[in-house]
Predict the structure of ABC transporter permease.
Amino acid sequence: MELTPKAKKTMVTAALIGPAAIWLFVFMVLPFFAILVFSVGERAPAGGYQPAFTFDQFANLGARAAAFVNTLTLAPIGAIACLLIAYPLAYYLAVKVDPRRRLLLVSLVVVPFWTSMLVRTYSWMYLLGARGIPHVLELIGIENVRLINTPGAVLLGIVYGYLPLMILPIFVSLEKLDRRLLEASADLGAKPISTFFNITLPLSLPGVMTGVALVTILLLGEYLIPQLLGGGKVFFIGNALVDLFLQSRNWPLGSAIAVTLVIVVVAVLLISMRIAWRFAGTRQIDLV
C-alpha cells in the first residue's frame, strides 16, 4: 500500500527528530524524574535514599542557605560584569572593525576555549596566590593583600571564564543590524548616543538577553571556579550538591536542592525570553 504524502512527511519528521527525542528522554527526562522521586524521600541510615513521601527536604533547604546566597548573588553580578565588558567589545567587532579582519579578531575571542577550563583556572590560582599578584604588590610596599579564596577571586574567575559566551551572541545580534537604520538616524539629525539607545541597543537586545541567560544559567550550576578560587570558603550550589551526594550521602536533600535549581534556571530562561520578546518582538527566535 502506497503511503500518502502526509504519512511520508510524518515518517520523515519522526526519523529526523526521533533519535534526538529518545536521547533527551533517556538522558534528561528520566534522570530528572529520578531526582524528583529522591527529593520527596528520606536519607537512609547508612546514607543514600530511603523510599518515603515527604517534603521535609524542601523545608530544610535553609541548611544550605550560604550556597544559595553565594550563587544567587555572584552569578547575576558575574553575568552583569561580563555584559559590561562584552558589549563594547562586541560592538567594536561588529560595527567598527574592517570585515577583512573581523573573522581573525572573533577567532581570538574563541581561542581560550581551546584550553581546558581546569588549566585556565589553575593559572588564576597561581596569579592570585601568595607567589602571584600579592607578591608583586608586596615588592612595591603594599603588604597583606589577600586575593585567593575570596568572593572577588571567584568573580574574577567567572568573568574570565564566561566572557566569550557573552561576547558571541551579542556580536551575532549586532552583526545582523541593518546599517541603513543607523544612517537614517544620522541623516535625521540624531546624535550618536541617541541612535545607540533608540536603535542599536533595542535591536541588539535579543543577543544581550541570550548572553545573560546563557552565562547566568551556567553559573547557577558552576562548581570548578568556586572550588578552586574560593578554596572551600565561597560555596556555590554545585559545591553543595557534590558534598551532599558524594560526601554526606544525603541524596534526598541534594535532590531537593537540584530540583530547586532547575526551577530557578527555568525561571531565568523564561524571564530573559519575556524581556527579549517585550523589547524586540520575534527577533529573539534567531538567537534563543
